[in-house]
Specification:
heterodimer, A: alpha+beta, Immunoglobulin-like, 2 domains, elongated, B: mainly alpha, 21 helices, 0% strand
C-alpha cells in the first residue's frame, strides 16, 4: 500500500516536473527577423547576414541548448543549438540573435542555413525532443533591405513590418508609464481608485463571509445531529442550542476538571520556595547528645 | 661627525613625528566624529527615543528595539572609502541582509509566522466581523487621496497609503515594489504608529461612541470545529487570491502558515514558523529597516510628510472601523449587535489594536471582555490589508 502511494507520488512529481520544463521552453518566441541585411547589424566577424531574434517571454531563465531551429517544415532538427554554452541561457524577458549565414563553424549562434529574399521563409523553433513545436512563422517573400519583420509587442502581438530594426532589444519601448499617467489624468483626486479598491476589498471579504456563514451553519447542523445521536444512545434529551455552546462553557468545564484533578496534589511546579525554619537548634540539644540523660538530682 | 649623526637623527626624528602625525590625522578623518553631521545626531536621537519607548513603556518592544538599534547602526557616520560598510553599498553585510527588505521576501516570511500563530476561531464563529476588517481599509485610501493632493505621484501615494493598513510587512512589501526610494520612511512610519496604537486610537474610539454603545455585550463566540479551522485557510486563499492574484505572496504565506497550525499533523512546521523563523526574520527586518534610515537618505521633507500622512491614515482607519460598526448595528437585531469599540481592531496591528478594544471596553464595564470579539476584525484586517496591497500593486505596479 505504502509502495503504491509512493509510486503515485513519484508519478505526480514527474508529471509536474515535465510540465514545468515544457512551460519554460514554450515561452520562447520568434520575435523579429531581418531577411536582407545590407547596411544593418554586423556579427562578431564584422559581417552582415540575415538574422533571427528569439525572445524569452517568461519570468524564468530558459536554456535553449539542445533545442532546434529550422527553415524546413519536414526537417525539424536541421540545426541543433549546441548544449553547454552559457550564452544559450536566456534571462527573463531577454533576447538572443541567431545569424542565418550557413556557417555553423563560426559558433553557437551561426545557423547552417540562410534566408532566401526571393521566396517565403519558413522558420521554426523546436523543443529538445525535436518533435514539440515551440514557435513557427512564415516570413513573406519580397522583404525590403534593412527592414525587419516582427511582432508589434515583444513575445505577443501581431506579425508585420516593424517601424525600426531592433536587434537584441525590445521591438517596442515605452517612453511613458501609461498606468500612472492614466491615473494622474483621470483620477487626480484618487476617488476612483478608492471606490474601486474598497469595492474589491469588500467583495472579497463579503464572499468569504457568505461562504463561512454557510460552512458555520453546516457545522452547527452536523454537531446537533451528532448530539442527537449521542442523546438517543443514552436516552437523554438535548438542549435547543446543542452544538452552539460558547467556548466559555468549555473553558469553565475544563477549569473545573483541572481543579478537581489538581486539588489532590499541592505541588507547584517550577516554584521553588525557600522557607526559613525557625527551630532553635544546637548540638547541645541534639538527640545524639540527649541519649545520655543528665541525672536528675532530687 | 657626531654633529652630523645628531643632525641626521634629528631629521629622521622629525620625519617620523611627521609620519605619526599624518597617520593620526588620517585615522581621525576616518572616525565618526570627523564625518558626523547634524542629521546623524538627529537620527541617533530618534533611534534612542525608539529604544526608550520600547523599554520604558513597552511599546512594541519586539519591533522598536531592533528598529531603534538599527537606526543607531545606520547612522554611525563614516568616510565613504569603499570599505563596504553602509547598507546602501553593494556587497556589504548590511546590504546583503537588506535584500530581504528590498526584494520583498522578508514580509511573506513574517506572514507565514503570523499565519502559524493566528487563531481564526473568532472570525469563523462570527464571520460578519470580516466586514469590519474591510471597512478599516479606508485608512489606506484616505491617506492615498491626501498624499495625491500633497504632490506625490500615484505609485508613491499608494505606497504611503498602505501605512493605514497598520501592517508593517505589508507596508514594506508594497513600498519595495511601488516606491523603493520612500521605503525607509514608510517602514519606520508604519512600525512607529503600530507601536503608538495605544495612544492614537482610544481618543477617537471614545469620541465616536456613546456610553450605551460602549456597554454593548456581544454573544460569546461558539466553539469552532477543527474541520472549519482547516477549511478556512484553504477557502480563504482560493477566494482572496483568485480575486487579487497580486496579493499572493502575502496571502499565500499567511494561509499556508495557518494551515500548518490547524491541520494538526504539521505541528513542527507550525512551531518553527511561529517561533524561530519569525523571530529571526523580525530581527533581520527590524535591524535593516532601522539601518536604512541613514540621515543622508532619510532626513528629507518627504519623510516628514510621510510621517504626517501615516498618523492621519491610522486615525482614518480607526474612525472608519468604529463608524462602520455603528452603521452595521442599524441592521442587526437586539442581542446580535456589535460593540463599536471593536471597530478600531479592523486595522491589522495584531493583537495590539484588539487589546485596545479590551482595555477601553473594561473602562466602562469591568466585566465586558471584548478581546476575543476584537480578534475577529483584527485578523480580518490582516487579510483586508493584504488584499488592498494586492489591488494597489495590480493598479499601480
Amino acid at each position: 500500500m505504502t509502495n503504491k502511494r509512493f509510486g503515485i507520488f513519484l508519478l505526480l512529481l514527474a508529471f509536474f516536473s515535465l510540465g514545468a520544463q515544457a512551460q519554460l521552453v514554450t515561452s520562447m518566441k520568434i520575435n523579429e527577423v531581418l531577411v536582407i541585411n545590407e547596411d544593418n547589424f554586423v556579427d562578431d566577424y564584422g559581417m552582415r547576414h540575415p538574422w533571427i531574434e528569439l525572445f524569452n517571454n517568461s519570468a524564468g531563465t530558459v536554456d535553449l541548448g539542445g533545442c532546434y531551429l529550422t527553415n524546413e517544415k519536414d526537417n525539424p532538427t536541421k540545426y541543433m543549438i549546441p548544449k553547454g554554452d552559457v550564452l544559450t541561457k536566456i534571462p527573463p524577458y531577454q533576447h538572443t540573435l541567431f545569424w542565418a549565414d550557413n556557417q555553423k563553424d563560426r559558433g553557437t549562434f551561426h545557423l547552417n542555413f540562410t534566408l532566401d529574399p526571393n521566396k517565403d521563409n519558413y522558420i521554426a523553433l523546436y523543443d529538445a525532443d525535436g518533435k514539440t513545436l515551440v514557435d513557427e512563422i512564415v516570413i513573406p517573400a519580397g522583404q525590403k533591405p534593412d527592414v525587419s519583420y516582427g511582432l508589434d509587442m515583444d513575445g505577443t502581438g501581431k506579425w508585420g513590418i516593424l517601424p525600426k530594426v531592433t536587434p537584441s532589444t525590445n521591438n517596442v519601448t515605452l517612453d511613458t508609464n501609461e498606468k500612472i499617467e492614466n491615473f494622474q489624468e483621470n483620477d487626480s483626486w484618487g476617488v476612483g481608485m478608492t471606490i474601486t479598491a474598497m469595492a474589491v476589498v469588500f467583495i472579497g471579504l463579503i464572499v468569504l463571509y457568505l461562504v463561512f456563514k454557510q460552512i458555520g451553519k453546516a457545522a452547527i447542523h452536523a454537531s446537533q445531529r451528532n448530539a442527537k445521536k449521542a442523546a438517543a444512545a443514552t436516552g437523554q434529551t438535548i438542549s435547543a442550542n446543542a452544538g452552539q455552546e460558547s467556548g466559555e462553557i468549555f473553558a469553565a468545564i475544563s477549569m473545573a476538571l483541572y481543579e478537581i484533578s489538581d486539588d489532590n496534589h499541592d505541588i507547584e511546579n517550577t516554584v521553588l520556595t525557600i522557607r526559613k525554619v525557625k527551630r532553635s537548634y544546637s548540638p547541645w540539644s541534639s538527640k545524639i547528645y540527649g541519649l545520655r540523660q543528665t541525672p536528675v538530682k532530687k | 661627525m657626531l654633529g652630523s649623526i645628531l643632525l641626521q637623527a634629528g631629521v629622521a626624528h622629525e620625519s617620523f613625528t611627521q609620519f605619526l602625525a599624518q597617520n593620526i590625522e588620517v585615522f581621525l578623518s576616518y572616525t565618526g566624529f570627523a564625518n558626523a553631521t547634524s542629521g546623524h545626531f538627529i537620527m541617533l536621537l530618534v533611534g534612542l527615543a525608539f529604544i526608550f519607548l520600547a523599554i520604558k513603556y513597552e511599546f512594541e518592544p519586539m519591533l522598536l528595539i531592533p528598529i531603534g538599534f538599527g537606526i543607531l547602526i545606520g547612522n554611525i557616520p563614516f568616510k565613504d572609502a569603499g570599505l563596504q560598510l553602509g547598507i546602501y553599498e553593494e556587497g556589504s553585510v548590511l546590504n546583503i541582509l537588506y535584500q530581504g527588505v528590498k526584494q520583498g521576501w522578508y514580509p511573506p516570511l513574517i506572514f507565514l509566522g503570523i499565519g502559524a500563530m493566528t487563531d481564526f476561531s473568532a472570525l469563523i464563529s462570527n464571520p460578519k466581523l470580516l466586514l469590519i476588517g474591510a471597512a478599516a481599509q479606508f485608512g489606506i485610501f484616505g491617506a492615498y487621496i491626501i498624499a495625491l493632493q500633497m504632490g506625490f505621484d500615484p505609485s508613491q501615494a499608494g505606497a504611503i497609503g498602505i501605512i493605514g493598513g497598520a501592517d508593517g510587512p505589508t507596508a514594506i512589501f508594497l513600498s519595495s515594489k511601488l516606491a523603493p526610494n520612500l521605503m525607509g520612511a514608510i517602514a519606520v512610519s508604519a512600525y512607529s504608529y503600530m507601536a503608538l496604537v495605544p495612544i492614537i486610537q482610544p481618543p477617537f474610539m471614545r469620541l465616536l461612541t456613546t456610553k450605551k454603545e460602549r456597554l454593548i455585550r456581544m454573544k460569546p463566540p461558539r466553539v469552532v470545529s477543527q474541520t472549519e479551522k482547516i477549511m478556512f485557510p484553504i477557502v480563504g486563499l482560493l477566494l482572496t487570491a483568485f480575486l487579487v492574484p497580486s496579493g499572493l505572496p502575502l496571502l499565500g504565506m499567511l494561509f499556508f502558515g495557518n494551515l500548518c497550525k490547524e491541520s494538526g499533523v504539521t505541528r513542527r512546521l507550525a512551531e518553527t514558523a511561529r517561533g524561530p523563523l519569525i523571530d529571526t526574520i523580525t530581527m533581520l527586518l527590524g535591524i535593516t529597516v532601522g539601518a536604512s534610515t541613514q540621515a543622508t537618505q532619510f532626513l528629507t521633507v518627504n519623510s516628514i510628510k510621510i510621517f504626517g500622512l501615516g498618523a492621519l491614515s491610522f486615525v482614518i482607519a480607526t474612525c472608519a472601523g468604529v463608524l462602520f460598526v455603528k452603521f452595521f448595528n442599524l441592521f442587526l437585531k437586539e442581542g446580535n449587535k456589535i460593540n463599536p469599540l471593536i471597530g478600531n481592531a479592523g486595522v491589522s496591528a495584531v493583537p495590539d489594536s484588539a487589546r485596545i478594544s479590551q482595555i477601553v471596553g473594561l473602562e466602562y464595564d469591568p466585566t465586558n471582555y471584548l478581546l476575543m470579539h476584537a480578534m475577529g476584525p483584527n485578523v480580518a484586517g490582516v487579510i483586508g490589508s493584504a488584499v488592498a496591497a494586492g489591488i494597489l500593486l495590480g493598479f499601480l505596479g
